[in-house]
Amino acid sequence: MTFCSFLSFAMIHIFNYKDRRYIFDSGSGSLHECDASTADYIRAAYLGEGDISAFSAEQRAVYESEIAELEKEGLFLKAEPTAYPLKSNEVKALCLHICHDCNLRCRYCFADEGAYHSEREFMPESTALKAIDFLIANSGARKVLEVDFFGGEPLMCLQTIKNVVKYAREQGARHGKKFLFTTTTNALLLDDDAIEFFNAEMENVVLSLDGRKEVHDAVRKTVNGKGSFDLVIDKIKKFVSLRGDKNYYVRGTFTARNLDFSKDVLFLAESGFDSISLEPVVTDIPDLAIKEEHLPAICAEYENLCDEYLKKRAQGKGFNFFHFNVDLEGGPCLSKRVSACGAGNEYFSVTPNGDIYPCHQFAGDADFLMGNVFEGKLDKKIRSKFANSCLFTRKGCENCFAKFICSGGCSANNYHYMGDINTPYPITCAMMKKRIECAMHVAAVKKG
Predict the structure, then answer these.
(1) C-alpha angle with apex 278: 286 to 195, nearest 5 degrees?
(2) Alpha-carbon dihedral angle through residues 70, 71, 76, 82, given to the nearest 10 degrees
(3) Beta-strand (E) ranges in 2-143?
(4) Does the first or last residue of the chain, that is N or C, have fewer Cβ atoms within 10 Å of its Cβ?
């Protein structure tokens, strides 16, 4: 098969991780480790990079025989899917902004330190219960529904959360629905009562902690301007010690101030946390924002983290780092990979007054106001915009090896940085590609 005849059907990505070489076939999702000569041959014969005459007829015959066998098994040169996903009109999840207020004043907070560029307020219980009714009424045949309690700081409204969970369980039983709950918290109010409730009712709990004390305290400050690390670290440790086998994540944010963020991930792991996520900041604050000139350092730091991650695993001290998880064999179905996250179509956020937005990062933007839970209707034009958005409408993704893994990026980030939900933000793309290469290396090492 010649280069020109297959390029529109399959994509090959060849990359090095230090002294190891990999070939990723995006059509099949297959990762192959190879030697330098094989990589050079694939580049020359199939990517048009290099001189094919450098390989003898005998060498070419050997390579082509191996390639033909992989192709026969569907592991190489497999045609990429091109069918648009059929998205459901059934609502599956709500993010309830149970509180537009916060007991911290984190510098990088996309939600305006919890206020979402409006007045600080709590969601009335009647609104939260109506949101549950809205979810059930619009869920169609779905049996499993999801609710995320978000803020601001949700624990400022713990009793409301308890009452909503109780109501949702009751209504779910009546309508044949099962509810899964998640809460995201800064842990400042994480006392014994909250821990007991979370461990009984929450499918997942996300706890905000940025890593080392000096890093955390520089940006995650209390209302009086002091660092919050000492106020939350022991509470988070206690919660995790009592969590058992239930899901949780300690989730941090790195900024331009800590481009050595691998140290923060390792600090969290050494603190006893085995489920960790560390995300690049989303902000325009000059001294915190990730800029293009930071990318080489960030990519190098992901490799540092990858090496240390594998070293810890070999020592029997392994932990789960969110961005190094990639399942190339049994991951999300193709429809989900193409459809992306479902924001604005199957997933919505609800603000304290009951207004509905595509997701929490669009909350408060009048251009994306989709309705209100008391009205029970959704703006068809906005919903259609998100329903019709998928990997194949993302601009510039068609020639990217990572597209079936990242699904074209976050619609909110795309919009806020590029002005269009279908135009990926290049800086995010660069970081994503590097993380995926590291994740593929991790998967190869794990497989042996």
Answers:
(1) 120
(2) -150
(3) 12-17, 20-25, 30-34, 93-97, 99-100, 121-122
(4) C
Rounded to whole angstroms, the Cα distance separating 235 from 134 reads 35
Q: For residues 130 and 174, is the Cβ–Cβ distance under 8 A?
A: no
Closest to 219 (Cα-Cα) out of 112, 103, 114, 107: 107
Are 105 and 222 a contacting pair, CB within 8 Å?
yes
Alpha helices in 244-397 (DSSP H): 262-270, 295-314, 334-339, 380-387
Instruction: Give the model's pLDDT for residue 339.
Output: 79
Rounded (5°) CA angle 111-283-433: 120
The helix (run of H) or strand (run of E) holding residue 180 is strand 178-185
Cα–Cα nearest to 131, from 372, 380, 379: 372
For the record, the structure tokens of 14 come out as: 């060849």
Residue 309 CA to residue 319 CA, distance in Å, equals 8
The parts of the chain modelled with pLDDT lower than 70 are: 1-10, 330-336
**Residue in the structure block whose two tokens are 């960030």:** 298
Distance CA 79, CA 67 (A): 15
Could you report the per-residue pLDDT of 94-114, keeping only the tens digit for each?
999 999 999 999 999 988 877
Q: Are 387 and 87 in contact (CB under 8 A)?
A: yes
Angle, nearest 10°, between helix axes 411-418 and 426-447? 150
Gyration radius of the chain's alpha carbons: 24
Tokens of 429: 């793309």
CA 55 to chain centre: 43
Would you say 112 and 376 are in contact if contact means Cβ atoms under 8 Å apart? no
List helix spans (H) across 213-368. Answer: 213-219, 229-243, 262-270, 295-314, 334-339
CA dihedral defined by 134, 135, 138, 139, rounded to 10 degrees?
A: -160
Place of tokens 């489920």: 275
What pLDDT is stored for residue 6 in this prediction?
30
Instruction: Give Cα 284 distance to the centre of its chain.
Output: 20
Q: Is the pTM of this model over 0.85?
A: yes
pLDDT digits (tens, 9 = 90+) for 184-200: 999 999 999 999 999 99
CB 324 within 8 A of CB 435: yes
Which residue, among 23, 27, 5, 13, has the nearest Cα to 82 in the 3D structure? Answer: 27
Nearest in space to 426 (alpha carbons), one of 412, 440, 438, 409: 409
